[in-house]
Amino acid sequence: MKNRPQTKTSRRAFLGTVAFGAAAATCGRVCRAASPVRSAFATAADRSAQAFAFHRPFDGGVLHAEYGSPVLGTETGPGGRQLLKVQFTGSVPPGAQVEVFAADGQQVAATVQDGTFQGTVLLADRISELKARATIDNAPQEIRTRVVWAKNSSRRFRCYIDDHSFCFRDIARRDYESIFDCFYLQRLRQLHREFGVKINLNCFNSTPERDFRLAMFPDKYKSEFEDNAHWLRLAFHAENEFPDIPYRDATPEKLAADFDLVAGELQRIAGSAYTAGLQIHWADVPPDCYQVLADRGVKMLPTRGRKPDSPEQKICDYHLPDAVLKYLVDNQGWMHFESGLIFYSGSTGGCDWTPVDQIVPNILRQIDVPATSHLINIAGHEQYWWPFYKNFVPDIYERYATAFRFVLDRGYRPIWIEDGFFGGAQ
């Protein structure tokens, strides 16, 4: 836990914008930006694919009834079933005729004008696929986009705190009678009692100095953790704080080994208070590690959006494609269909680095936009609570309290990110 100046790392900038949380053809697989060589020598088929594409809804984008464009609201269908009304738009080469089909294979009315096709469709399922067909350069072509519907979505917030190791060391060394004799956990319990919040602690296996590891923590507090699991849960974060960005180039085997090590110790220590609702240290693993997380119960991962021309370093983004990162600047969530993971942007600014008078403005920037208003993060890091830490924040409690007070007053409810679909929806 070094004092990392903001000019030397974008993790702080990332967590300051994430913590306190495209055409269909480009999103079918996860990759880095397209090769400039390939772009320079694009084939005719490539150019046709770019000219014939869905623009909205975004392939894999998570929508809800109050989302705003391209959602037009809901209607009641046969048998009282709720349907999501969505506008679709796309591009097509001049002179080509387009046929659009809903998930049930029924053709949907679409108009074509000036190289753009558009229409509306009613969707019934959590995941619905739209297809469009056209003949271009005498060759039949078909494109698709997939809509993810978070049914019964409402305004809710998640609290998670990263980088835990100090509290375990403190409890074990002092042999407390209760885990809440540790001042840090006592303060978190005070936040829960005052605001009814649920708090997720993302944990390291060892302290930065490697003078303590979870295997040294006794299991005698297990029943107490379980008695408080309705508001306090523990999850994997990384094996250690260092090296930085530990899983950026990790193999699936390496990530699985670290995950299983920490998860196993947390289950021994805390029993049913263990959860898979985590955040990965530095928010980065390669795409071939996604399935490792999904297989261990992870459903959603907080990340950030970034525009293609952003000067920010390309880290803390789970290696997501540029088109997806651009989408997440102004939108809430995106599903990676191969693994089932959902990456979401719920930033309201990290409590560690946000002064009390900026907490509310940061939250408002997120919740004033319908497309990003339903799911927000209130988050930070353990070390900033400890007086011995060189970057200790004396008013850290009030920063969290200010955030909780504000969102609760506006009808937000606390959730566990692993509950339901898309963090408490259906």
Account of the protein in words:
The chain is α/β, with parallel strands linked by helices and 426 residues long. It contains eleven helices and 18 strands. Strand 5 and strand 6 form a beta hairpin. The longest helix has 19 residues, at 252-270.
Mean pLDDT: 90
Number of helices: 11
Count of β-strands: 18
Give the helix proportion (percent range): 25-40%
Radius of gyration, whole Å: 23 Å
Sheet of most strands: 5 strands, antiparallel
Q: What is the end-to-end distance?
A: 38 Å
Q: What structural class results from the helix and strand content?
A: alpha/beta
Q: Which of globular, elongated, flat, extended, rod-shaped describes the shape? A: elongated
Q: What's the helix-strand series?
A: HHHEEEEEEEEEEEHHEHEHHEHEEHEHE
What share of the residues does DSSP label as strand, in percent? 15-25%
User: Runs with pLDDT <50, length 5+?
Assistant: 1-47
Oligomerization: single chain
Summary of the model, kept short:
By secondary structure, the protein is of the alpha/beta class.
